[in-house]
Each structure stands twice: as C-alpha cells, then as structure tokens.
Amino acid sequence: MPLFLFFLGLIIGSFLNVVIFRLETDEDFVGGRSKCRSCGKTIRWYDNVPLLSFAVLRGKCRDCGAAISWQYPIVELSTAILFFCVGNSLFIPGDTGSIFGATLALGLIPSLIIIFVYDLRHMEIPVSTLVFGTTWVLFSLVLQWLFSSPFEPFLTSRLFSGIVGGGIAFLFFYALVFFSKETWMGSGDAWLAAMLGLVSGWEMLLHSLTLAFGTGAVVGVALLALRRKELSSRIPFGPFLVTSVLIFIFFGKMIGEEFGLFLWM
Question: Measuring CA to CA, which residue among 219, 236, 255 is closest to residue 117?
C-alpha cells in the first residue's frame, strides 16, 4: 500500500503543478495538453513523466532549452512522500478509524500543497482550494461520526470538537484581519485557520496555533538574519498554517498523548 500511494502521489503531484500554474491565468486545468511556459510548445507525453522527465531533460525544455521550474519535481516528490507516509503510518487494514483518517488525509493533502505553493508565489490563497479542503475535512468527520461504533454522542464526538475548534480559530484570525485591515493577515488565512481547527479539534487548537506562529517566527527571524527580508516585508502565513495541519494529521495522536488531550484518531 505505501509504495502504491507513493507512485499515485507522483501522478497527483504532476497534476497539482498544472492546477497551480493554471490558477494564475484562470485557465481550465481539466482539459488541454500541458505546454512549455516559455515557447508555448505542447509537451510530449514522454517528457511529462513525474520526476523522470525532469532528470532526463536536465531541467530544460526539449524545444527551446528554457529552464523548467524546480517547483515541478519538488511538488511531485513532496506529494509522493506525503502519500507514502499516509500508507505507512495512518492506514491500518481492518481498522475502521484508521481508514477514515487515511481517507481524510489523502483527500486533504493535494489542497494543502496547492495552498502552500500558491501562497508562497502570490501571497494569496485560492478560494476554490480552500472551499474544497474545508468541505472534505468536514465531510470526512461527519462520516467518521455516523459510522463510529458504538455510536458516539455528538457533543463528545470528534466532529463537535472540530467544529468548535474551527469556529474559534476562524474568529480569532478574522479579528486579526479586521483590526489590521488585512495588513497582518488575509481573509484566506482565517479560512485556512478554520481548517486547522477542524483537524486539530478545540482541545489541541492552542498547540496547533502555537506551532504555526512559532514556525513563522523562526523562519521570519532566519530570513531577516540572511537579509532576504526586511522588517517591513510581508511573509505569507498560509504555508505555516499548512505545515501545522500536516503535523497534526501525522502526529496529532502522539501530541494528544503527550499532553493528555483529545486524540485525533
């Protein structure tokens, strides 16, 4: 299963690159052949094999010789590794709870990768991806609750904890957006924080937000030290929220046990 998910992740990662670039130009990312972004030539099928084609072509277009963005292999490999980790650590055959958790992760990871890369490139989070990711998490939690055995009361369920956590996270970030007039945070960050709250639950919301702000502070200080940014520069916060979501997907149970809190799965 992990190896199958690794190769599936490579294929999905290749598609995610298409989505990311076509979101920039409002192109339809479902139909149409991929083209070189420099010369416009249609990319041959054998030049579109995840990772392998980039290595064979040495990172250059076969037709015009223009450099191919390193985003392509990085996104493909990252997706593959995350999918492999889902199969290796979250999926336990015969365990219904792990099946729901693995399904939630596999459906959410593509959205998280798109948000991470797009926000880094454009300081903006695509609304369509946010809507899909949040809906997927909520749908997965509803199914997990409906099929829990024995049936769990709503007020003590993972679904209720996620809804409360998502609501608190959204209100906190929306307050930052409102009072700063979007100079500290964007509205997309508020919705992404709601997704984080759904994943972590209200019991571990403080830990998840601390993790996001902590990693953001460390990276910000590092960029200042390297003189890559100035104090007045803006740094996208979406990637840090995404990182926190991923950490709680894979290590939420471990973190919960460490602090004696609600277990994610």
Answer: 236
The DSSP letter of residue 230 is -
One-letter amino acid for residue 50 of the chain:
P
Q: In whole angstroms, what is the distance from residue 212 CA to residue 238 CA?
A: 9
Which of 250, 265, 219 is CA-nearest to residue 109? 250
Please count the CA atoms within 13 angstroms of the CA of 101 that sit on its side-chain side: 27
> Which of 245, 128, 123, 225 lies closest to 184, judged by CA?
123
Q: What is the pLDDT of residues 54-67, one digit of tens each?
A: 999 888 988 888 88
Q: DSSP secondary structure string, 108-177?
A: HHHHHHHHHHHHHHHS---HHHHHHHHHHHHHHHHHHHHT-SSPPPGGGSHHHHHHHHHHHHHHHHHHHH
Tens of pLDDT, residues 190-243:
999 999 999 988 888 888 888 888 888 887 777 767 666 655 567 788 899 999
- Give the pLDDT confidence of 2-42 residue by residue, as tens digits: 899 999 999 999 999 989 988 887 776 666 677 787 887 88
> Which residues are CB-neighbours of 203 under 8 A, at least 6 positions away?
161, 165, 256, 261, 262
Task: Say how many C-beta atoms besides its own lie within 10 A of residue 183's C-beta.
Answer: 10
Return the amino acid letter for 126: P
Q: Which residues are CB-neighbours of 85 under 8 A, at least 6 positions away?
A: 250
**Separation CA 33–CA 43 (nearest Å):** 7
